[in-house]
Amino acid sequence: MGRDSLSIDMKALKIVLVVLISMSCVQAKKKDKLKYDKKEMSSCSGKMDTIKPKIAKLRADLDLIHKCMNTSRTDPNWSTYCVEPPASFSSTGNQIPSGRMQGVEAPKDRSTAATTADTFAIGDMYLSGYTTKCGPQTITGWTNSLDIYYSTTAVADSTNTYVSTGSGTYTAPVNGYYNICAFLRFKKGGNAVDVTVYAGGSVVAGFGDAVDQDWRSTGTCIIRLLSAGNTVYIRNNSGGGSDCVEETAWRYGRLGVYMVGPTT
To answer: What CA–CA distance (Å, rounded) separates 134 from 255?
Structure first.
């Protein structure tokens, strides 16, 4: 962007502003010829006097941007030309102001364990060893990987248990939106395997396999609104005794739940 181009843009902007203000000052009557009101024109003149400093400020800012773009960081004047915008530049408190410094600022809306007001909940379990689970049944016998909950009044992990490996359930500790991911491997043979994901007592997702000539691993992830005390688990719904979930100790089977946002 050259200085001539910048000057032309400023002149065009000024002309447009003048035309718009002048048009707003013209009074028209129905079924009559256009005519102007001297009092209103005088008022418009006052408005023009008010807007002139703003135009001048805009022109100065554009000139400063132009100087910044054409000044090397090693130039002593760089910090003079390349100034940060005011702190109120962002429209919300969580946004990081953008500027001409080209620096990367750390986000300010992350949850941290050391902040009392922050809350997060994480639960993760996996199937271990070799096992098969054939026919209709809730998938149980998990191994706990993560069971973490920080309330809004604590800076330490809760001692309560929310991951139940025996029953294969995760219990939401607090109201909120939770990301739920479930994955399983299906054994070669049989007819088909249909798995459903339950949350809060209802089926919220499903996945499965209808290829009986080879093993398959698959799963799904969803986001659901849960209330405190709601449980999440997965179930094999296939009726055949040879329709099996199979775990080979490679941890195909996993159930992970974590809160993405509290609602209270």
So the answer is: 18
